[in-house]
């Protein structure tokens, strides 16, 4: 199977190796728009991708097994393209890939932006809300458009998140005869929807007075909508450090409250995943809103009480218990769900739960710490310390084998 990248310049923009693969194929799979770019000299059967594409891939590949098959992909097949699905099915050795420059390479070429300094976000089949994680003053972003409406949606999101002064350029039909660039700012986006094939380039500028959100855990408490049930900033930063999110890992945030721990876990890396379990349905809804506002719309929220609500959840790499520690069976259910090497962190401000954590530490090892944060507050005309309730935190790593002491692993 040969995967051929093709651009808006169609057949005319293909190198000879790609043309030969398409001419000699018994069948060519591709989108309707891409198949229409092929000249009559490509005599193979033309098969349009069904929608949705992913579930149909195994059946289509099986149907053409043993025949010379070419697959048309937009630009670089392995950049947000069909290459992923094909490699999953055929294995990386089962493909011959002839890439074309991606729309992102074209955009950087037109803008004079180094690709390695440019953040790329795809709006194709994914919520645009993820943009909120990568908006930082001075950063350059490229959004792969999902249709003619993407530029207007990007401008609206930038305004809502305090980035209205950002310069926005829309690059349409990159590499094709109809290539055009539209320019404006998010605050004042003057253009009606244009071509559905577009990339939106953003030079991020934060509005004066907008809340700065950094790239590391410990976002300001004001970044969250909350009812007081929020792990406060300094304790939250220490909690995320103890949880130590790594790319691809899954967190259970048990007693999610406002969702801040799950949100900041997911902000650590685009591939981090989290499930927040919250018994109060209003708070569960609030977690969804916070996840959306703070750029991690994929955070899964389970509305229900643990431990019952934990049943059937995918195996976590780490568990945070921020509420419900004294609920019968909750801590055991979390511990049992962890695979060997998994991490558990539990925070509490009550003596009853603290006693429970001290007992667990005797049994499983790990680290018990007390986090006491005080803020400078006015005392008459002077200043004193306003002491927040101290938080007791137990952080432990489950032993890798049944006979190794967990203390040595933590
Ligand atoms: C202190 S808050 C957690 C704050 C959270 N880490 C944050 O930063 O937003 C504790 C939460 O646990 C929830 N909770 C208590 N018991 C629970 C249980 N058994 N199952 C699920 N949630 C529970 C409460 O409703 C409350 O929202």
UniProtKB/TrEMBL annotation:
Protein name: Precorrin-6y C5,15-methyltransferase (Decarboxylating) subunit CbiE
Keyword Phosphoprotein: no
Pathway entry: Cofactor biosynthesis; adenosylcobalamin biosynthesis
Residues annotated as domain Tetrapyrrole methylase: 2-188
UniProtKB keywords: Cobalamin biosynthesis, Methyltransferase, S-adenosyl-L-methionine, Transferase
Gene3D superfamilies listed in its UniProt record: Cobalt-precorrin-4 Transmethylase, Domain 1, Methyltransferase, Cobalt-precorrin-4 Transmethylase, Domain 2, Vaccinia Virus protein VP39
Organism, scientific name: Streptomyces hazeniae
Highest taxon in the source lineage: Bacteria
Cross-referenced Pfam families: PCMT, TP_methylase
């Amino acid at each position: 199977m040969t995967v051929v990248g093709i651009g808006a310049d169609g057949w005319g923009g293909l190198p000879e190796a790609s043309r030969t693969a398409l001419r000699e194929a018994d069948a060519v799979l591709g989108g309707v728009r891409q198949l229409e770019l092929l000249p009559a000299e490509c005599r193979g059967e033309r098969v349009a991708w069904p929608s949705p594409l992913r579930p149909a891939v195994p059946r289509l590949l099986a149907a053409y097994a043993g025949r010379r098959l070419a697959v048309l992909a937009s630009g670089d097949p392995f950049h947000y393209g069909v290459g992923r699905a094909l490699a999953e099915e055929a294995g990386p050795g089962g493909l011959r890939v002839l890439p074309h420059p991606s729309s992102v390479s074209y955009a950087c070429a037109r803008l004079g932006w180094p690709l390695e300094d440019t953040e790329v976000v795809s709006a194709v089949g994914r919520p645009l809300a993820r943009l909120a994680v990568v908006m930082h003053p001075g950063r350059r972003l490229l959004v792969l458009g999902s249709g003619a409406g993407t530029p207007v949606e990007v401008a609206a999101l930038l305004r809502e998140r305090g980035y209205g002064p950002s310069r926005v350029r829309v690059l349409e039909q990159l590499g094709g005869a109809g290539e055009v660039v539209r320019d404006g700012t998010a605050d004042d986006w003057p253009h009606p929807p244009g071509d559905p094939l577009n990339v939106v380039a953003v030079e991020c500028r934060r509005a004066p007075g907008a809340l700065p959100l950094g790239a590391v855990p410990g976002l300001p408490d004001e970044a969250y909508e909350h009812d007081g049930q929020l792990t406060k900033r300094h304790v939250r930063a220490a909690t995320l450090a103890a949880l130590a999110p790594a790319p691809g890992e899954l967190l259970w945030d048990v007693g999610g409250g406002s969702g801040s721990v799950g949100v900041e876990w997911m902000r650590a890396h685009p591939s981090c995943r989290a499930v927040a379990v919250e018994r109060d349905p209003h708070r569960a809804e609030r977690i969804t809103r916070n996840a959306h506002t703070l750029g991690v719309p994929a955070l899964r929220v389970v509305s229900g009480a643990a431990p019952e609500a934990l049943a059937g959840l995918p195996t976590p790499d780490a568990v945070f218990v921020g509420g419900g520690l004294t609920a019968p069976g909750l801590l055991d259910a979390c511990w049992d769900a962890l695979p060997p090497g998994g991490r558990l962190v539990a925070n509490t401000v009550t003596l009853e739960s603290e006693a429970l954590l001290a007992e667990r530490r005797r049994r499983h090892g790990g680290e018990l710490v007390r986090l006491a944060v005080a803020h400078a507050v006015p005392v008459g005309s002077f200043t004193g310390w306003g002491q927040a309730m101290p938080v007791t935190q137990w952080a432990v790593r489950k032993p890798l084998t049944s006979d190794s002491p967990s203390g040595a692993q933590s």
